[in-house]
From TrEMBL:
Gene3D superfamilies: Ribonuclease Z/Hydroxyacylglutathione hydrolase-like (3.60.15.10)
The protein, known as: MBL fold metallo-hydrolase
Region (Disordered): 1-25
Residues annotated as signal peptide: none
Gene source species: Pseudonocardia zijingensis
One Pfam family, short name: Lactamase_B
Length: 348
């Protein structure tokens, strides 16, 4: 969930190291190729063109019935909503493994977009939730009939945290809370981990809790609160925030975020430290730089990413238009616009 808050509120809480043991370094096995398909994003642009790095959804994706047209139908394109979901396909030799990373906001968007792209969700071999906010987990409600029973789902144990937005002089908004019991009842095999996890024969890293080491990425404003069992308290860190990392042979790290609540630079630093791989090749996903509470974080984030010099940057979801423009200006050769239905390819 993304809330702009007020200017300066992001500086109200100091960063701290993540709890738990950091498994350092981790032997992340290199892969031959990774393809990341954005199934749900805030944006769909049917006029975007592809190249050797990205394939865009066809403009005519999603034929639907519409009696107002002579042909009896029209092309609906891809769904866009305030949420994020991606399908990650990892290729190693003759083996391909697919994981679903987040599931969007609404129960049906990820299913509708998958159908319009011709993506078979039943081929997914696992689910990873970046965190428990409902704009990344809402699509689970529509997936139970599409995925096999016993599907493993990797989550941080704080993903079940009850949260709300309580901005000054505005109505309180209670965020929908994930139910572990309900997900288990639907046949998901929930795997809770605070520490890093290796999936897909050691070739996909889930970061677990991210170390907070920068001075400028300080989390959510005071309006974002969590229930402690005794009362509501400011929840700046969103400790369940985690990212997915792949090491593409001869290229470097590919880092996929959901909202990036831990901070894009913190996440990249954490991935490099865990793996011992210095080179950041690609950064994709939400970077949470939208709104007055987070726009002051844009310049130092741009400076740090410019120094890292990634070959591909695809800011999505909650990155915000100001940060999009700044990233496109600072990293013109690396920046690619995000859009529902786009597939990004990074190969050795």
């Amino acid at each position: 969930m993304c809330d702009g808050g007020q200017a300066g509120e992001a500086q109200a809480s100091a960063p701290r190291p993540a709890e738990g043991t950091a498994l350092d370094p981790i032997a992340l096995q290199p892969v031959d190729e990774v393809r990341i398909t954005t199934l749900v994003d805030n944006v769909y642009d049917g006029l975007l063109t592809g190249d050797d790095r990205v394939t865009r959804a066809e403009f005519g994706s999603g034929r639907v019935t519409a009696a107002q047209f002579e042909e009896g139908g029209t092309d609906a394109g891809m769904r866009a909503e305030h949420g994020f979901a991606a399908l990650v396909a990892v290729h190693r030799g003759a083996t391909t493994t697919t994981l679903l990373f987040d599931t969007g906001l609404s129960p049906d968007a990820v299913v509708v977009n998958s159908d319009r792209l011709g993506v078979d969700l039943s081929a997914a071999q696992g689910i990873v939730l970046s965190h428990g906010h409902f704009d990344h987990a809402g699509g689970l409600a529509g997936l139970s009939g599409r995925l096999r029973r016993g599907m493993p789902m990797v989550v941080h144990p704080a993903a079940w945290t009850r949260r709300r937005l309580a901005p000054p002089n505005r109505e309180i908004f209670d965020l929908p809370t994930l139910s572990r019991r309900a997900l288990g009842g639907e046949g998901f095999e929930v795997v809770e981990r605070r520490e890093p996890s290796l999936l897909v024969d050691g070739s996909v890293l889930i970061t677990g809790e991210v170390d907070r080491t920068t001075e400028f990425e300080r989390g959510m404003p005071p309006a974002h609160q969590a229930w402690t069992g005794a009362g509501w308290e400011h929840d700046p860190l969103v400790l369940d925030d985690q990212a997915l990392v792949v090491h593409v042979r001869d290229r470097g790290l590919v880092v996929l975020t959901g909202c990036g609540h831990a901070g894009a630079v913190n996440i990249v630093r954490h991935a490099r430290r865990l793996t011992g791989v210095d080179r950041l090749y690609a950064l994709l996903g939400g970077l949470h730089l939208s709104g007055p509470a987070f726009e002051p974080v844009i310049p130092p984030t741009i400076d740090a990413l410019t120094e890292l010099a990634p070959a591909m940057v695809v800011p999505a979801h909650c990155t915000g238009w100001r940060a999009q423009h700044a990233l496109a200006t600072a990293l013109p050769d690396a920046w690619l616009p995000g859009s529902s239905g786009s597939t990004y390819r990074i190969a050795a």
